[in-house]
Amino acid sequence: MxxxxxxxxxxxxxxxxxxxxxxxxxxxxxxxxWHGQLPPWTQDGFPWPQTPPLAPAATRAYDYxxxxxxxxMHSHQGLQEQSLMTAPLIVQDAAxxxxxxxxVVVMLHDFSFTAPDALLAGLTGQTPSAIHAMARSTxxxxxxxxxxxxxxxxxxGMAHTAAGKGMGMSMSGMSMSGMSMSGMSMSGMSMxxxxxxxxxxxxxxxxxxDPETIQVERSGRVRLRIINAASSSQFWIDLGAxxxxxxxxxxxxxxxxxGRRFPLAIAQRLDIVVDLPGxxxxxxxxxxxxxxxxTGVVLATPGSRVVRIQDTGLDQxxxxxxxxxxxxxxxxxxxxxxxxxxxxxxxGGGMKPYSWSLNGEFWPNITPLMLRKGQRVEIExxxxxxxxxxxxxxxxxxxxxAVNGRPLNxxxxxxxxxxxxxxxxxxxFDADNPGRWALHCHNLYHMMTGMMTEVRxxxxxx
Length: 462
Ligand SMILES: [Cu+2]
Hints:
By secondary structure, the protein is mostly beta strands.
């Protein structure tokens, strides 16, 4: 997907309206979500009954005021995101343009030659055709209105692990064909990383065997806009010899943080400004957590020699964590106010059986989290599972107000990582965008096996 200037995705000028006509040229139903943007809920690109997926050859019009920053778009239908149905969505800001920096968008992906439904089938032990049928039925299903009742999730017939019951489960020695898990010892327990053993990791659709080389000026001033569009992989951004300043996360400005290595959870974005130290070739790498594997692009000044970089490094990376999160301070924080409402969510599930839940419930059999327009709402998420979950709330930007119980004047985000083994994150927002909104783990396979719920405003028709 490219725009009229040949750039991938969409780039909007400062003040430009998001006025898009979406045409489905695929052979399947699809719907595109404008990740992190704050449109009215009927334009969010989620397959609610009121906003069903587009049939082949169908079109849908979108018209809303976008918020500036680094965003992205992706299919919210079935497993299409794993088939790379994703693109950058960059909304320019006059003040950022006035800095005169060269903009470099880097979009990361995980890639497998195995079909996505076969990957999910490998995780759950179901057949690809059963997965296919499940994907169709759950994506178009609406949660039941305010009933707790049936807790059977999308994986009908599977014995579900209730929230927290996966604790202490040993993962060692367990592997399925095409699947892998990296165990990591932390206080005698092992956490899970990398559900899927991918064939490749991509930066702007290329591997390090033939990376994108981006021409930059000698001593150039660059703004990197890095998007983790991978379905199930988290990375450390490694600037190598360069020092960068993180100036925005998930599109929202932060007080700059200086460094060379920054964690990037699934679906999150990092804006990093870099001042090049003269001439040369400067790799910008994304290194897979719990692994030696990596991908990336190269910034190169004219005439510099670009050396081939191996796609496997020497040292294994640690799990992505909240070490950056706890250092971030929002440029435009939410005014302090006591919450009118606090929702608490337990993140649960495990690898065997492979299924993931919120408050012990599995999408679409969930109890919506209700709220009212005008309320200050806080959501406290506690992770009882052995795996980290990048949690995404649609339709609202939220400051992170606490990590592991420690209060913060944290970054404003749309996706936040909740670390495993009783890690917790608290977010806050003003209920100012009435509708039905998804709240889910952005690991595609976690979402597809149940890890999604609804945030619903009072009075919205369902
Ligand atoms: Cu998850």
